[in-house]
Design goal:
- With 788 residues, the protein is an alpha+beta fold.
- It has 15 helices and 30 strands.
- The strands form four sheets. Strands 3, 10, 16, 17, 18, 19, 20, 21, 22 and 23 form a ten-stranded antiparallel sheet that branches.
- Helix 8 packs antiparallel against helix 9.
- It is globular and about 85 Å long.
- It starts with 27 loop residues before the first strand and ends with a strand.
- The N terminus is likely disordered.
- Bound molecules: beta-L-arabinofuranose and zinc ion (ZN).
- Beta-L-arabinofuranose (FUB) binds next to loops.
Length: 788
């Protein structure tokens, strides 16, 4: 197993930056660049968020929108003011969370210097106005005690009585909103920040070591929020003032298994309560809960020096990345419980919730902060460019909650549980604050993410440094940095050299890891390559220009053989961008498109998709677009993992090889076993001598089984002058609870050769039935039928 080396930078005293004052064990601190100016690719993404997506979310949450979640807070304010609420509570108990994570996204959006981008400036102005309108509504919904949760106040339920109501989850987002708003206003507006402190103080007064209460956190998130609050309070109000919030977080994290034990009937593993956090080693349970929980573990290691939690977070990171990470960076494969699956269980129809990627992104920040090596940044880059960026549509008016790698589903404007809607942009905006990090002694400045951004970094070898990064990344591997320290300063400038095989699950062909060139002021410079960074140490002065280049060929990505779903398959990546083959660009049905190593791909500029993207085209005509741009042109299948070796590529055997098979004319055919013997060439089953009738074949699994894909090789013996042909049509139905059947897929164009494959929204069922209409005058048959 491949395990990435962890950094060796020494832990030392806190770096006095805004966001970092509480840190005591951090190797590096992310650099928050005030009023950063962002250009190029990321400016386009941010403009889409600011001018389209966030306004869309606001519309949905206000009166007349799809969710109207803001109205719950309006009504809570009315109740707290002694008035009759204008509406009844609507939505999930945690619906305040989307209001808060959208507000946090707005704060981050307002930190960007719009420069001369008029549209961006106008979009920001509208968001600022909306924020001012919402702040009083939110503040009015907070009880004088600091408690805030509209579901409880409108339903008049006792506080902290049912962990499933997500009070901690909601308050976590509330606190993070306050911290972000305070930072955006440069500490001038404390309204939401003080409200966050009141909320945290209330929690701190109720919960903690005995004689205070201990309670199971029904959905982690609060713990990391408390760490971030601790950082902000320490920075704003004095070192040490915020530490008690971090200690409260530690109490929750270290006590989750104890509290979990008090909640009989809860699935402990799902809730990260099956064992002490310090003993965890397998990323497991609900993926959003888990990644939020693990983020806090890692954060507490740096904030409070809790090295046991840190060691456990490292083991879990290894588990999540080296055994459970999709090539798109998505995690949480299982549709059952929105959870991490087992090792190597990475079906391409897997769940990959957007919020789980947000959680992973926060976790990588904390892992990087402690170890200072590039591994977590490589992980973060993958999930940001592929899973997260792809969750919002090109027009910024719809999104994905789930992000499977093999799907036909287009994005939707809203969701019954829109937990991801503000979480996605707040995570994407965070990238502007993650471009650089600084070692805690201020002697090494790390360039972590590549985007055109300019701003100021304080405390670099004791000096202020203006730095302008320019790049066409993710489309080219060339990045220039113009440095202007206020006075000549001796420090190491360390630039990440991306590793595309940051997960032991994947190999790249060609592998260009560690290949790079650095020039300083136009001359080739010596750089030490260590911990994933090319490091140049010298005395820097204003006007110095550093250029980093690294190759970005189209890479064939292959997956560990233990991942059943990707056997005999290949995916394509260029730079950080993973590609998806869409049916709309390819004549051959995707399931039959074989991309053996003889097919060579070249990038080309596709101007008519997502404001222009580099797509790739094979010399056999196959075309793929960036996964983040997929399915913006209507329904039609989009797949990341394509067949490379048809003999090896198969469906997951377990599901159908064990199924018992029956068919409509049960008395006639012994050859039925040929259908699920895993060999399309070995025999066949047919309905002969029946002609033109309606028939069926059925798989019974013996237990509820999740399926999302089916493929059939039909038996056609025209060439032998036989009587079987491709069916006139077919439907696929899943058995429902009461024994009735529900159609989940049906035939499209007849597939005369090879696999007739279809994907559908995953269903849990005990049986599947394939209804076949035999063609006029003929019979039909099946060589192989596989489902997954
Ligand atoms: O439970 C709150 C959020 O709703 C979770 O994070 C998501 O997975 C969704 O279930
Ligand atoms: Zn979500």
């Amino acid at each position: 197993m491949k395990t990435k080396a962890l950094g060796t930078l020494a832990a030392c005293a806190a770096f006095a930056a805004f966001a970092a004052a509480a840190a005591s064990g951090a190797a590096v601190e992310p650099v928050v660049m005030r009023d950063a100016k962002v250009d190029g690719f990321w400016r386009d993404q941010y403009r889409r968020m600011i001018c389209r997506w966030i306004p869309h979310c606001i519309r949905q949450m206000e009166a007349g929108g799809a969710g109207e979640e803001l109205l719950n807070l309006v009504a809570t304010g009315e109740v707290l003011a002694g008035r009759t609420p204008s509406v009844k509570f609507k939505g999930c108990p945690w619906s305040d969370a989307y209001v808060y994570n959208t507000m946090e996204a707005i704060s981050l959006a307002l930190e960007i210097d719009p420069g001369d981008d008029f549209a961006l400036a106008q979009g920001q102005q509208a968001l600022r106005a909306k924020m001012e309108e919402w702040i009083p509504i939110i503040l009015a919904a907070q009880e004088p005690s600091g408690y805030i949760h509209s579901f409880h106040d409108l339903r008049r339920q006792p506080h902290f009585s049912r962990a499933g109501d997500h009070e901690f989850y909601v308050m976590g987002y509330f606190i993070e909103m306050g911290v972000a708003h305070f930072r955006m206003t440069k500490g001038k507006d404390r309204r939401l920040f003080d409200a966050a402190i009141r909320c945290a103080d209330h929690l701190d007064s109720v919960f903690g070591p005995a004689p205070k209460r201990t309670w199971l956190n029904g959905h982690p998130g609060l713990e990391y929020a408390l760490c971030r609050l601790a950082d902000a309070v320490n920075a704003a109000d004095g070192a040490g003032k915020g530490d008690r919030y971090a200690r409260l977080a530690q109490h929750f994290i270290r006590g989750q298994h104890v509290a979990g034990g008090n909640n009989a009937g809860w699935n402990a593993a799902y809730h990260q309560a099956e064992r002490p956090a310090t003993e965890m080693k397998d990323a497991t349970g609900h993926a959003v809960r888990a990644t939020y929980f693990y983020t806090a573990m890692s954060a507490l290691a740096s904030r409070l020096g809790d090295s046991e939690l840190g060691a456990a977070a490292d083991r879990l990171f290894d588990s999540a990345i080296n055994r459970k990470e999709y090539l798109t960076g998505g995690v949480g494969a299982s549709w059952r419980g929105e959870a991490f699956g087992g090792d190597y269980e990475l079906a391409n129809t897997g769940y990959c919730e957007s919020c789980a990627s947000c959680g992973m992104s926060f976790w990588t920040v904390e892992q990087h902060r402690r170890h200072g090596d590039s591994w977590p940044v490589d992980v973060q880059e993958r999930l940001v460019y592929n899973n997260l960026l792809g969750s919002i549509s090109e027009d910024g008016r719809s999104f994905y909650y789930q992000n499977p790698l093999d799907s036909s589903k287009v994005r939707y404007p809203w969701h019954g549980c829109p937990c991801c809607v503000g979480n996605i942009p707040r995570t994407l905006f965070a990238l502007k604050d993650l471009a650089y990090s600084l070692s805690s002694d201020g002697r090494t400045l790390f360039a972590d993410h590549f985007l055109s951004i300019q701003g100021r970094v304080d405390g670099v070898a004791g000096a202020r440094l203006w730095i302008r990064q320019r790049t066409d990344y993710p489309w080219t591997g060339r990045v220039t940095f113009a440095l202007a320290p206020e006075k000549p300063a001796a420090f190491t400038f360390a630039m990440r050299v991306p590793d595309r095989t940051e997960s032991a699950l994947y190999t790249a062909d060609p592998d260009v890891g560690g290949v790079f060139t650095v020039t300083v002021n136009g001359k080739k410079a010596r750089a030490e390559f260590r911990g994933g960074y090319a490091r140049v140490e010298r005395t820097w002065k204003a006007g110095d220009v550093v250029e980093l280049t690294f190759p970005m060929p189209v890479q064939r990505m292959r997956c560990d053989g233990r991942v059943e779903a990707n056997k005999g398959r290949v995916a394509f990546q260029r730079g950080p961008v993973v590609y998806s083959f869409e049916q709309v660009d390819n004549k051959t049905p995707l399931a039959r498109l074989v991309l053996d190593p003889g097919v060579t791909f070249q990038p080309f500029w596709k101007a008519d998709l997502c404001d222009g993207v580099f797509a790739i085209r094979g010399d056999n005509g196959a075309v793929a677009v960036p996964n983040f741009a997929r399915l913006n042109r209507g329904e039609g299948r989009a797949m990341v993992w394509m067949v490379e070796d048809a003999a090896k590529a198969g469906f997951h055997k377990g599901v159908f090889a064990k199924a018992s098979v029956s068919f409509s004319r049960g008395e006639m055919k012994p050859k039925v076993s040929a259908i699920n013997d895993m060999d399309a060439k070995n025999g066949n089953f047919d309905f002969w001598p029946h002609l033109a009738t309606s028939e069926w074949i059925r798989y019974d699994f013996g237990k509820d089984t999740e399926v999302a894909k089916s493929a059939v090789v039909w038996f056609d013996d025209k060439a032998q002058k036989g009587n079987c042909r491709i069916p006139a049509s077919w439907t696929l139905s899943a058995m429902q609870g009461g024994g009735s059947w529900k159609v989940v897929a049906e035939s499209r164009a007849p597939v005369t050769n090879g696999w007739d494959e279809v994907s559908f929204a995953p269903v849990k069922t005990r049986a599947l039935r394939l209804d076949v209409q035999l063609p006029a005058g003929f019979s039909a048959g099946v060589r192989e039928w596989k489902v997954e």
